[in-house]
Amino acid sequence: MAEGGSKAFGAFSVASALVAAAFAKKAIDKTWTVATGKNPPENPADPDVEIWEAVTWAVVSGMAVGLARMLAQRRATSYYVRSTGHLPGQLQPDGK
């Protein structure tokens, strides 16, 4: 049972992180457009994109997506703990 619960938690955690990342990407795209008046760079490695714009986009989008994923995974863990009364196996100190 614990193994199945851990697998379910893993799937739930990944799914929540992916959904959160997608929402963060949409939000940061919109925020970028409002703040700069232009669409976000499609490919920051493109030499036609100014370096300041590429660096700023990489930092802002990476931070937003990473933060959203982390928060979603923490929420998933919190839900798991409330539902089962313990941490999922992969988050327990002994790793079981």
From TrEMBL:
Q: What is this protein called?
A: DUF4235 domain-containing protein
The species this protein belongs to is Nocardioides conyzicola
